[in-house]
Amino acid sequence: MTDPVIIHTDGGCRPNPGPGGWGAVLRHREHVRELYGGEPGMTSNNRMELTAPIMALEALTRPVVVHLHTDSTYVRNGITKWVLGWERNGWLTAAKQPVKNVDLWQRLQAACLRHQVEWFWVKGHSGVADNELADVLATRGMREALGASPVA
Description:
By secondary structure, this protein is an alpha/beta fold. It has helices at 45-59, 73-88, 102-113, 129-145; strands spanning 5-13, 18-28, 31-43, 65-70, 116-121. GO terms for molecular function: RNA-DNA hybrid ribonuclease activity.
C-alpha cells in the first residue's frame, strides 16, 4: 500500500488527574473517520494521550502503513525509544521502578505490531488542522463522559 493512513491523536484531562477524553482523526485518501471517548473518573493526561493512538490503530480493519501524529512526547518517545527496554527489564524503568500505564503501553505495542507505524511529533495548538480537530474530539469525549452536552 503506497498511501498511508494518516492519524492525528490527542488526549487530556481537566484537571490532571481527573476526568479525561481522547480523540483521533484517521485519513486515507478521501475517507475521514473521527473517533473519541472519555473517562468520567480519575485518569491522567498521559493515559488519555496513550488511549487515543490505541483506539485509532485498533479501529483499522486490516494491516496498513500508518503515519501517526501526536503532540505527546511521552507517547512518541515511549513507543519509539523506551518500550523495548521496559519490556526487556520486566516492565521496570531504568531506576527499577514499575512503568506507569503498563497496561496501555502493552496494548499500544500490540496494536502497532499489526501495522507499519511511523511516529511523528507535532506541536500542540500550533494550527495543524487535524491536531486541532483531535483536541476538539478529546474535549467532546470528556464532556460526554461527564454527561455534558457533546458540543466542544
